[in-house]
């Protein structure tokens, strides 16, 4: 399994990092998580042919996770994609996504490849092996994180969420946890009130589910903020226990799970 982040920032991007969106791929399939920035260009920069993308996960309706969708669909149509694209999303996100595409008349384009919007309760099988299962999390809009099982280490992504109860942890046993960290421990009251989490809370979640690597995302902009949040998470997990991903760097799942994180 490989992970390539296109951005790790929350709603406000920085000069070095865009809004959270990332690619997960294994031999036989590729999966894009959320659509921000210029998704087709980001896939190309990651060495992925956008026409081959198998699946898109849209976690929720907020702007920073959805606004690049029309650009992606338009680019794929112009590139001559014929292969169906499976879009996994909850009903609220599906409806907003379709509405956004309709604003640009994209659903009516002649020869548009099939867009298959699904919300499978029992998980979705990826081509060539692997399974992804969506799970609701705690946010200000209906939001789904997911658990992904493939040939490589198991992965749980929280998407945007407030702290999740210990008995929730379908993430328990996942070797890699990707968790939002929208601020530090000193801001937890305000963060939790808006259904977000601190880096300390992300680290506590990683410890609770037994993850071997914690990847922090949905960060405030700036390198200094990212360093501070990594240090805060390491205060729970120990040195090297968390990382902030660098855009377009390829992270191998086996390396992340084996090395128990690092600074990226």
Q: Quickly count the domains.
A: 1
What is the residue-mean pLDDT, rounded to a whole number?
93
Tell me the series of helices and strands, N- to C-terminal. EEEEHEHHEHEEEEEEHHEHEEH
**Poorly predicted runs of 5 or more residues:** 260-264
State the share of residues found in helices, binned by percent.
25-40%
> What would you call the structural class?
alpha/beta
CATH class category label:
Alpha Beta
Work out the number of β strands: 15
The main pleated sheet reads as:
8 strands, mixed
**CATH fold-level name:** Metallo-beta-lactamase, Chain A
The CATH homologous superfamily is named Ribonuclease Z/Hydroxyacylglutathione hydrolase-like
Strand share of the residues?
A: 15-25%
Describe, in plain words, how this protein is organized in 3D.
- This protein has 264 residues and is an alpha/beta fold.
- It has a single domain (2-259), classed as Metallo-beta-lactamase, Chain A, CATH 3.60.15.
- 28% of the residues lie in helices and 24% in strands.
- It has eight helices and 15 strands.
- Strands 1, 2, 3, 4, 5, 6, 7 and 15 form an eight-stranded mixed β-sheet that branches.
- Strand 4 (29-33), helix 1 (39-45) and strand 5 (55-57) form a beta-alpha-beta unit.
- Helix 6 (199-209) runs parallel beside helix 7.
């Amino acid at each position: 399994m490989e992970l390539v982040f296109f951005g790790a920032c929350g709603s406000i991007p920085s000069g070095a990092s865009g809004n959270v969106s990332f690619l997960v791929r294994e031999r036989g399939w590729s999966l894009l998580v959320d659509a921000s920035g210029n998704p087709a260009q980001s896939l190309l920069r990651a060495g992925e042919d956008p026409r081959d993308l198998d699946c898109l996960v849209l976690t929720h309706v907020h702007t920073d996770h959805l606004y690049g969708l029309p650009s992606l669909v338009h680019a794929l149509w112009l590139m001559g994609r014929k292969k169906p694209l499976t879009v996994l999303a909850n009903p609220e996100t599906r409806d907003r996504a379709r509405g956004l595409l309709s604003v640009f008349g994209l659903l009516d384009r002649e020869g548009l490849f099939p867009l298959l919007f699904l919300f499978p309760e029992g998980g979705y099988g990826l081509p060539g092996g692997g399974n992804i299962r969506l799970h609701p999390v705690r946010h200000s809009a209906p939001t789904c994180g997911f658990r992904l099982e493939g040939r490589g280490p198991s992965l749980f992504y929280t998407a945007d969420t407030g702290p999740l109860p210990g008995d929730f942890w379908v993430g328990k046993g996942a070797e890699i946890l990707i968790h939002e960290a929208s601020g530090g421990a000193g801001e937890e009251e305000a963060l939790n009130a808006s259904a977000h989490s601190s880096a300390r809370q992300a680290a506590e979640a990683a410890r609770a589910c037994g993850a071997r690597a914690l990847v922090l995302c949905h960060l405030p902009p700036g390198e200094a903020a990212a360093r501070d949040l990594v240090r805060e998470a390491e205060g729970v997990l120990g040195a090297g226990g968390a990382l902030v991903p660098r855009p377009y760097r390829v992270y191998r799942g086996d390396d992340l799970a084996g090395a128990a994180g690092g600074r990226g």
